[in-house]
From TrEMBL:
A Pfam cross-reference name: ABC1
Lineage: Bacteria, Pseudomonadati, Bacteroidota, Cytophagia, Cytophagales
Gene3D superfamilies in the cross-refs: Transferase(Phosphotransferase) domain 1
Protein name per UniProt: AarF/ABC1/UbiB kinase family protein
Domain Protein kinase: 127-440
Length: 560
């Protein structure tokens, strides 16, 4: 059970020290992590006054994450897109995290490329720039030129990063196991599921072939678009640890002076960018999930280019319809429609009172319905929607939060380029298009076919299932398993009461026996002490001992 704990002991001790340094003694003292801290250090927690306590608890969480390194920073950045799980104040702190790290030696980059391709670098590239274009926690990017003359960029994974990430993921699993009770008491009900999902995401990010596949998929979807381009990945020169991509020149989408210098209309560029992004969400159901200005370039001819496909979001057809339905219900000022679409969107939604839920959504609608379209902000709406999701503990797909975050980023880009830019004006026509698609004859026929297939499968298995149940009933083998949750504390209390009642009854029985023993007639061999039979003294002693046990048990209960 403690195999991983032992193998990661030094790293766990480091984590504990960082937690203590930033004032999270309760995380340590309330969990088995306290065993890793000396008694001398424990005493210092109670007396040492540290300036770090002048900061808020959420700021200290961010400080801890920054000091623990890239894997923890990436986890926090991923969690910053999940307002259904974390309070807004903590998300604000996580969004401040930066994972930029210094580049590693170019000689190591060359060695990795040659090892992955199985040949000298000079047999692939005629030029390879020593200075990287950029560097991050997973890898860094170099500009190069193929022997065939094409300019490319080469993403090279950091040496030993996979082993380091796996070690930290193993550590995260162990930390969650050790602190699960503490985390649940502070509102994080499924910490293990979060780490499992993050592990899948990290393993995917560590495999550059996954990013290459995403790029090829986008290129196929947008092959007929003249105003949008995705760089070409060179799959024959790419592996899990290196990725060779077509080099694209251009300026950041927010570089308004350069756009004007090229004779481009910034307003038109902003409108094109929003149109392309909404097409990804509402038509294709697959979207670039990190459209910050550095990842959206503009060519001199006005073509938009998306780069860095390490983070891609996906929506199923039903999720797409439900998400659009939330916005459509809001536009129509229909709180009930919004509530129903929220329930359709949620993976699990245990809403105890739908009337209260609808009333809260109606308040949101009224707040935004009174605003002029120019005063409406996607950022404000995203915050309100995320608060609703968090307050009602709705488990919605993570892609939804990526979309909301991306829309907020795009609105910020749009306002830099377009003085009258309004996200809602762009979303509105897509809502009408989604309704038309949802109720189109083709989609209705597809849904009918799916329902028919499910019904046919049920009818095929139903007779066999019924026969099996009937056989078990006839043999008396049918068993029903009923599991009641939430009654553990009550059962423990009842168990304590029953135990004490039994002890009390036995004590009373001995007390009664002591009284009756004084009336008995005994043989001359009976011993007396102070004129009272020894048998009576023994009975009184047992009675006193039992009452003492009851007194101790009662004192322990009050301390609890």
């Amino acid at each position: 059970m403690f195999k991983n704990t032992i193998s990661n002991l030094s790293r766990i001790r480091q984590v504990v020290e960082v937690l203590v340094r930033y004032g999270f003694e309760d995380v340590v003292t309330s969990t088995p992590l306290r065993r890793l801290v000396t008694q001398k250090r424990r005493l210092s927690w109670q007396h040492a006054e540290r300036p770090v306590f002048e900061t808020s608890r959420w700021e200290r969480v961010r400080m801890v994450i920054e000091e623990l390194g890239p894997t923890f920073i990436k986890l926090a950045q991923a969690m910053s897109n999940r307002p259904d799980l974390l309070p807004e104040a903590l998300i604000d702190e996580f969004q401040k995290l930066q994972s930029d790290v210094p580049p590693f030696d170019v000689r190591l980059a060359r060695e990795i490329i040659e090892r992955e391709l199985g040949r000298p670098i000079t047999e692939v590239f005629s030029e390879f720039e020593e200075k990287p274009l950029g560097s991050a926690s997973i890898g860094q990017v170099h500009k190069a030129r193929l022997l065939t003359g094409e300019d490319v960029v080469v993403k090279v994974q950091r040496p030993d990063v996979q082993e380091k990430v796996r070690t930290d993921l193993s550590l995260l699993h162990e930390l969650v196991r050790l602190t699960a009770g503490f985390l649940r008491n502070h509102g994080l009900s499924n910490p293990q599921d979060i780490v499992d999902a993050f592990e899948r995401s990290m393993m995917k990010e560590l495999d550059y072939t996954s990013e290459a596949r995403s790029m090829e998929q986008f290129r196929k979807l947008y092959e007929s678009y003249e105003t949008f381009s995705i760089p070409k990945p060179y799959r024959e020169l790419s592996t899990a640890k290196i990725l060779v991509i077509e080099f694209v020149s251009g300026c950041k989408i927010t570089d308004k002076p350069q756009l004007l210098k090229w004779g481009l209309s910034p307003e038109k560029v902003a409108e094109t960018g929003m149109d392309i992004y909404l097409t990804q969400i509402f038509e294709f159901g697959i979207f670039h999930a990190d459209p910050h200005p550095g990842n959206v370039l503009v060519r001199p001819d006005g073509t938009l280019v998306l780069i860095d496909f390490g983070m891609v979001g996906r929506l199923s057809k039903q999720q797409k319809y439900a998400f659009a339905g939330v916005f459509i219900g809001m536009a129509r000022q229909d709180a009930r429609s919004m509530a129903l679409n929220f329930r359709r969107l949620a993976l699990t939604a245990d809403i105890p009172d739908m009337r209260t839920f609808e009333a809260d959504l109606n308040d949101l609608i009224e707040d935004f319905a009174l605003l002029d379209v120019q005063d409406m902000s996607m950022s404000d709406l995203a915050d309100r929607l995320q608060n609703v999701i968090y307050d009602y503990k709705l488990q919605v797909p993570g892609a939804i939060f990526l979309i909301l975050r991306a829309l907020v980023i795009l609105e910020g880009i749009g306002k830099v380029l377009h003085p009258r830019f309004n996200t809602f004006e762009f979303v509105r026509p897509y809502g009408a298009r989604i309704i038309a698609e949802q109720y189109s004859p083709e989609n209705i026929l597809s849904e009918a076919q799916y329902t028919g297939t499910q019904l046919l499968a049920l009818l095929q298995t139903l007779p066999a299932d019924v026969r099996q149940i009937m056989r078990k009933i006839s043999r008396g083998d049918l068993r029903l398993k009923v599991e009641l949750s939430g009654y553990q504390a009550l059962m423990r209390t009842a168990d304590r009461l029953v135990s004490r009642t039994i002890i009390a009854l036995i004590a009373v029985a001995f007390l009664l026996f002591s009284g009756l023993s004084l009336l008995g007639r005994y043989s001359p061999d009976m011993r007396y002490w102070h004129g009272i039979p020894v048998l009576t003294w023994w009975s009184l002693g047992i009675t006193g001992f039992l009452f003492l046990i009851l007194l101790i048990l009662g004192t322990q209960k009050r301390k609890e």
